[in-house]
Amino acid sequence: MISRKESFYNGFRLGFPIMLGYMPLGFAFGVVAVKNGISPFWAVTLSALVFAGAGQFIAASMLGAGASILSIAVANLLVNLRHVLMSAALVTPWKHLSFSWKMFLSFYQTDEIFAANISYYKAGKEVTVAQVLTLGFVAHSGWIIGTFIGALSGEQITNVEIYGLDFALPAMFTALLIPLIVDRIQIIVCLVGVISSLFFMELGFDRWSIIIATLISATIGLYLSLQKEKK
Fold it and tell me: Which string of DSSP letters, residue by residue, matches 5-39?
């Protein structure tokens, strides 16, 4: 059993690169929020209490367009349905945690934090509350700091895309994903997920494309794994 000090260190080590990746994305959100009529105070508050990258961008854009709170909530529900599948994958790594801790720590399960937690578990290491909490807190701080700076700079920035800030998140997630792909089945699942996601997006499914692609690739992965076990 690892010590609490080691757990904090592991959480910081895993969370620090994500924090660096979240800062430019938080900056971009801060700019977008201010340009859609959200005050810097509420932009930072939103990042502190919500912590949902794509969902926050959607909320800011919809608020700027005058959308209702209900429609914003429904849009966020759809775009974040993937978290149901992510939480299911954490059943085994978190089986020793109490229900109350699982509920609390679920707040920090963004795509990148989830990938870091899963890779840590698959490396055969013990997952502790201190490690998960530290990882989430460190990563979240980058998002909040970035939002704060972006919100204050909102009036001076006209287009965040010219700085390549919109590419930071997919680049970071790709870097976290690659070490997890270690055999033929995982390669197939990854390729099926990418291709089917792009395919359904082209068909106009938009936010549903990720959910559909995940279900298809996960089903294929399960089938191939069962076939492998039979041999």
Answer: HHHHHHHHHHHHHHHHHHHHHHHHHHHHHHHTT--
